[in-house]
Amino acid sequence: FYNSIPVQEDKKQNLADYLQSCVSGRYELGKVISEGSTVIIFKAREVFANREVAIKVLKQSDIDKKAVLEEIKRLAKLKHRGITRIFDTYFEKYPYFVVTEYVKGINLQKMMARSGYFSYYMTVEILRELCELLEYARRWDVLYPVIRPSKVILDEEGYPMISPFSVLRTKN
Description:
By secondary structure, the protein is α+β, with helices and mostly antiparallel strands.
């Protein structure tokens, strides 16, 4: 479907059509909501549970599937309000994807650009909550190598959330 970045719009549509055929009956695929260097993220609805989800399609086809699946299984065990949950995976054939919790909200970078600044209280509260969730992840041997405002989503209640996909496992 695609091998280079950025993905052209016609290739995204081909990907969306193919992805819909893969998830038919389980998920109703929506529009592309985000694109990063490694994934394209679609908003979707899980039919059975009638809930919104995010389908994260990996851009790379040449991955070590066994290692990636082991890491996803490990990350799926994380249970913290600030870490998006993993619901499902598809690694039978390319394109590979992971289904996660969909978080309604805005990333911290956009929020900062809109408001210009945060109150002292809000800044301290966001930092406290981020430190708490990073400490929880560290206890599970999960490190977030880079935390930047574009990777932190403030949910509808203003709680900071991060995806489990930006992590590295420690060696020890």
